[in-house]
Amino acid sequence: MATIREEDLVVSIADALQFISYYHPEDYVRNLTQAWRREESPAARDAMAQILVNSRMAAFGRRPICQDTGTAQVFVRIGLGARIASARSLQEIVDEGVRQAWRTERNPLRASVVRDPLFARRNTGDNTPAMLHVEMVAGDALEVHVAAKGGGSENKARFAVLNPSDSVADWVVRTVEGLGAGWCPPGLVGLGVGGSPDKAMTLAKLSLLDPIDLPEIRARGPASPEEELRLALCDRINALGIGAQGLGGLTTVLDVKLRTFPTHAASLPVALIPQCAADRHVHFVLDGSGPAAFAPPPLDLWPAAISAAGPAGRPVDLDRLTRQEVATWRAGETLLLSGRLLTGRDAAHLRLTRMLEAGEPLPVDLRDRAIYYVGPVDAVGDEAVGPAGPTTSTRMDTFLEPLLPRTGLLVMVGKAERGPAAVETIARNGCAYLIAVGGAAYLVSKAVRSARVLAFPDLGMEAIHEFVVADMPVTVAVDAAGTSIHRDGPARWRRPAREAAPA
């Protein structure tokens, strides 16, 4: 019987979570590089370039790929002949590993987990507890797969119980088309089909841990109906034209994963979970001989000639914004922001709205200002701020109507599309919505020269900060006339599915 020491499991989980915070899996980088080389849409190609440059910077700097360092997802397969030498529960052991990972001094990760999901929603401060899945299997070793899943992609998880005669493929394509870009494509789609509702969701999550192998399947030809379905789904999804960051382009998904399980004759449960551009997971096995070791990817993994410079952008002085200037911006245009930039997310927006309703003065003046939807990672060393990529903007849609006309807020910066009502509100108030690239958080943070908290410090990463930025690259997603690049871009690149497969 193999005996696994508690401390070996704790340190292995902590090291694994640190490792995946700054290293992409090699298969993701290679396949994204191929997609970047094939891409014909200039906007999508530049977004992919920023993701790849960010990936290389994070790897060399050992800082998080994304500011949303995710919830810890830990899948443990315990051999029946293995024994964990501990008086604590497996959940407690795993949580200790998470706690140590998130509090690592040289690379602190962003605590995003709230203890009470219904009422106070107070942050646990160390990202515990982990989402733990356990399976007892044959053998005498401990097999562990560790992942970190960001909220943007988790929020786009979908589930349905179809009739046995329904088309799973049609449901998947309709569902992905309705997800928008908040899950930060290009990424992966994980599918779980069969079992019960809870089993199907677990299958979908597990499928995302499988290697990217669709290019190899395409090259040799599918060997099973499941592989045929995956290829067809990948082609049909890419034919939607959603593209990187929803800007319109050839590649929305790099692979479609699938796991199945026997199910009731009257049921066809189907779960869909997308994986964003921050594809983070690693596998290790403990056999009692000590903690796991993780090998960094080769230094030549990233394309040497890649650049995220993109097209020349129009300089914008945030300290002298006017409605007249904003009215000249056009959807799809690249801007370079410099000056003072406010930050604020869900919790801050909710407080601001409630203060307005109560007739209380706001702690910050929003008139003619720009606000960035971001929850940054804590800075280390001489950093002004840690990785600081955008969060999904649709969560702030409900706050636009009470805030824009009453505060004079002029510009919002985030990621992904805005809903139809939000677009109408933006246009009616003569405002604009800009996007930064989701999945390029470390790269974006290099444009931040200084940062300080202005209001709501108790909200932690959701406090209102003031950044001073220099040449921060953004794209006009909704202009003051109500033109949306997330509507027009995918429409321009949509094509028949038979044209979707790469050459």
Entry keywords:
lyase; 15 helices; alpha/beta; single chain; 17 strands; fumarase; 32% helix; 503 residues; 4Fe-4S; five-stranded mixed beta barrel
Word description of this protein:
- The strands form four sheets. A five-stranded mixed barrel has the order 12-13-14-15-17.
- It is an alpha/beta fold and 503 residues long.
- The protein is built from 15 helices and 17 strands.
- Helix 1 packs across helix 4.
- The N and C termini lie far apart (52 Å).
- The longest helix is centred in the N-terminal third of the chain and has 20 residues, at 42-61.
- Among the domains are: 151-275, no CATH class; 314-489, fumarase (Alpha-Beta Barrel), CATH 3.20.130.
- The chain has helices spanning 6-22, 26-38, 42-61, 90-102, 151-154, 168-179, 197-207, 214-220, 225-239, 323-326, 346-357, 397-407, 420-428, 441-445, 485-493; strands at 2-5, 71-79, 82-85, 131-137, 142-149, 158-162, 187-195, 253-263, 268-275, 281-286, 314-317, 334-343, 370-372, 411-414, 432-435, 448-455, 464-478.
- Helices cover 32% and strands 24% of the residues.
